[in-house]
Structures are given as structure tokens and as C-alpha cells.
Amino acid sequence: MTSHFLLMVLFALLVSTVFAVLLRDDPRDQLRTGGLMLGGFVAAALALGWLMYPFPL
Question: Residue ranges per domain, the chain?
């Protein structure tokens, strides 16, 4: 069974990879930008999930 967290990280990895390749030309800059975006996407998703946790469905 696949977890939501794993799927979220996979999606963030793919999106950050595409954005990094489109935005930067140098491979070193692409790697740095992709890593920063991946970390930002995952951190933002975890923060929003934590903030929404107390609210009922």
C-alpha cells in the first residue's frame, strides 16, 4: 500500500525537477534550484497539513 506522503514527495520531486530544468541552464544551478524547490514543496505541504489537522472534516 502506498502512503500519501510518498506520493506527495514523488509529485514534488517531479515538479521541482521540471521547474529546475526550465528555469536554469547550468546543471549545478539546476540541482541546487531543484533541491530548494523540493524542500520548499515538502515543507509547505507538511506545514499546511499540520495547520489543517485540528479542523474537522
Answer: 4-52
